[in-house]
Structures are given as C-alpha cells and as structure tokens.
C-alpha cells in the first residue's frame, strides 16, 4: 500500500461512513490526519477509538464546511498541530430525497448546495492558500463526487446539481494549479452503504425515485461500492508518481452501475 508517512491530511465529514474510512486509511499509512464533522457525538466516538492507536497523529474539529471562518480555523489548527498541509479530501456531503426541481424547497436546495458545493469551494480555497505558503510538494485535493456528477437523472435536482458543480470545480482547479504542483482529482462514486443516506429517513419523492429506478438496471446490495476500496484508492491518488498524471481526472468508481 502507498505510504503517506509524514503527510498531513484533512478529511471533511469524517466522523463516520466513507470519510472515516478514508481518514483511517491515511492514518494506517503513516499520515497525520485532521477530520471534521458537524456531529459532536460521532466526533467524540472517533476520538476515543483513534486515541488507542494513533495518539498525537490526529485532530478532530466540529466544523460546518459551509462556514468560511470555521473552515479556515480547521486548516489553521491542522497546520498549527502538524506543521503543514499536504492533502485535502472533500468527503462531507448530504443526499436529497430525490425531489425534482418543482418539488424541491428553497431551504433544501440551499442546504444541499451549501454543504456539497460551497463547502468544497471553501475548503479548497483555504487549502490552496496554505499550499502556496509551503515549498511545492505535490499537494493533492480529492473531491468525492458521484455518478450524479455525470448522469443527470440518478438523484434529485439539488444533489445532481451540487455534484455536477463539484466535478467542474475539480477540473477548473486542476487546470489552473497543476503547473504549481497542486493537483485535483474527482472520484465519481456509485451506490455505497454510508450515512449520507440518512436523508432518506425524511421520506422520498416516490414518483421521481421510481422513474429513476425504471430508467436503469435495478440497484442491489451486491452493486454497492465498498467504502474501504474507495479509501485505498484515495490513498493511491496521493502518491507522488500518480497525482500529477491523475490531475483533472474524474474517475468513475462505481462497480459498473449504472452500466457503462
């Protein structure tokens, strides 16, 4: 497995699910890791668990990624503790309830885009400012996208737009900063068993959901992308020999569902 010895990594939305798996993979590979989440109870659980194995190599912060001041504090605290920043993984995200535009409230639209798109913009902005203060060392930003980044009819309007925007942010960032030694890669993930689906407990727009299901082969548990595999791939993408050639890539990582 790729070594991340001595690197400092920030992973957002990392007190559970995919974000925690990614953070754990970097810790196991020797990195210092700062994680944030909005759920204090989940953060406390992570802190208790990791303190047994990783001592002073991790930092937890309750952070709303749509709050610019909070994001800046996260970056500042990570640098103050570990001395630098090398990698940012934008994993924080929320799902909608499959609402089409005509049924999506302004409140839900704003919430989804604030977390899924404004958040990665703010963390990217803060991380790049820090990267530019340091000696170039192959810094990497990994954005966790979705099949909805490239397929317009796989989720509700708000989630689809947020993830399509994240793909565009990835490519734009890669284009401008690549020759400065700052690389940006997107992962377009398929269905996973993560806490992002907590939103479904609030109910689904069943007509939209059923139309989407009817437009493709059915999703089933064996088609789920293992979160541990995603975590390993994130680690791989930060390798100094891989990151430059992967710059600007938006990698479909979806267990071929929906079928290519």
UniProtKB/TrEMBL annotation:
<protein>
    <submittedName>
        <fullName>Uncharacterized protein</fullName>
    </submittedName>
</protein>
<dbReference type="GO" id="GO:0016616">
    <property type="term" value="F:oxidoreductase activity, acting on the CH-OH group of donors, NAD or NADP as acceptor"/>
</dbReference>
<dbReference type="InterPro" id="IPR036291">
    <property type="entry name" value="NAD(P)-bd_dom_sf"/>
</dbReference>
<keyword id="KW-0521">NADP</keyword>
<dbReference type="GO" id="GO:0048038">
    <property type="term" value="F:quinone binding"/>
</dbReference>
<dbReference type="GO" id="GO:0006633">
    <property type="term" value="P:fatty acid biosynthetic process"/>
</dbReference>
<dbReference type="Pfam" id="PF00106">
    <property type="entry name" value="adh_short"/>
</dbReference>
<comment type="similarity">
    <text>Belongs to the short-chain dehydrogenases/reductases (SDR) family.</text>
</comment>
<dbReference type="InterPro" id="IPR002347">
    <property type="entry name" value="SDR_fam"/>
</dbReference>
<dbReference type="InterPro" id="IPR020904">
    <property type="entry name" value="Sc_DH/Rdtase_CS"/>
</dbReference>
């Amino acid at each position: 497995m790729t070594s991340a010895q001595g690197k400092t990594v920030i992973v957002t939305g990392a007190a559970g699910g995919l974000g925690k798996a990614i953070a754990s993979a970097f810790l196991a590979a020797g990195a210092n890791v700062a994680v944030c989440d909005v759920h204090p109870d989940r953060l406390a659980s992570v802190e208790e668990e990791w303190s047994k194995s990783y001592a002073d190599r991790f930092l937890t912060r309750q952070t709303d990624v749509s709050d610019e001041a909070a994001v800046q504090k996260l970056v500042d605290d990570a640098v103050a503790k570990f001395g630098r920043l090398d990698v940012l993984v934008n994993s924080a995200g929320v799902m909608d309830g499959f609402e089409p535009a005509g049924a999506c409230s302004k409140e839900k639209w704003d919430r989804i885009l604030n977390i899924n798109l404004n958040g990665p913009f703010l963390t990217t902005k803060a991380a790049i400012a820090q990267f530019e203060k340091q000696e170039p060392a192959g810094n990497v930003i990994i954005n966790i996208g979705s099949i909805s980044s490239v397929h317009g009819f796989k989720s509700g309007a708000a989630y689809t737009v947020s993830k399509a925007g994240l793909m565009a942010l990835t490519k734009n960032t890669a284009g401008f900063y690549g020759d400065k030694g700052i690389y940006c890669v997107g992962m377009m993930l398929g269905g996973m068993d993560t806490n992002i689906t907590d939103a479904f407990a609030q109910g689904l727009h069943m007509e939209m959901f059923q139309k989407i299901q009817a437009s493709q082969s059915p999703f089933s548990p064996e088609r789920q992308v293992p979160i541990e595999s995603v975590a390993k791939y994130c680690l791989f993408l930060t390798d100094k020999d891989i990151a430059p050639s992967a710059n600007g890539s938006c990698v479909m990582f979806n267990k071929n569902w929906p079928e290519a």
